Amino acid sequence: MDKGGNIRVLVIDDEETMLEVCSEVLESAGYSVRRSYGGQEALGLLIDEDWDVVLTDVHMPGLGGVDLFKETIARKKEMRGRFLFMTGDKRAIETVSSMDSNFIKKPFRVKDLLSAVESIIPNERSTPRKEARVKVAGCGVVVEAGGEQVVSAVTEDFSRQGMRIRYSGSPIEPGSVLGLRLSALCLSLVKQAKVVWSREDGSQGASSGLLFTMPLPDSVIADLAVQGLYF
Known about the structure:
The protein folds into 2 domains: 8-125, Response regulator (Rossmann fold, 3-Layer(aba) Sandwich); 140-226, Beta Barrel (Thrombin, subunit H), CATH 2.40.10. The protein has helices at residues 16-28, 39-48, 65-75, 90-98, 110-125, 218-226, and strands spanning 8-12, 32-36, 53-57, 83-87, 102-105, 140-145, 148-158, 162-168, 177-184, 187-200, 205-212. It is an alpha/beta fold. 29% of the residues lie in helices and 34% in strands. β10 and β11 form a beta hairpin. The chain has 6 helices and 11 strands.
């Protein structure tokens, strides 16, 4: 994606070092970044201006990240999917997960931050996806690396280009190339895929977005469409 300074990110943290480091990383990646020292200052910016991504700490004096989120979406419902919470606190992770919100666990690496931010943008800036997503949730997928099983996962959905999976364990390194074996309904699938993003998804679980190295044939989507499994 050619950001060209057009993607606006609001970074919120009461710790100056964390605020500066995250902001500089995102600026170096081409994002247009605004800093805010705490939730109360950020609330006015969120209400008065438009933002593509809001990267915020959870624990801050005064107006914390969760309350800031609630205050914001009460006024601007379209902001719900644009928040990315930063926290290393287990209880805070459970709270954020219960809100079905995005989060990144502290401490995190630069590439993990960039991957998490990037994963939010397509949903917020692209036009609605016209390509059919196949609604085959809960089907088993064997995920392999180097010929050995890494995790046993279940599908959330997939398209010709890739799929989303859920599994027990830790997030998988973005950029990893995996082997996939899935057999469900009329579909028997053996594919290779690259991990685009991966994040913790509740207690002892994770989810990942995978991009197939070769798209699925149209015939596979057509077969599933006949069964009414696309949406």
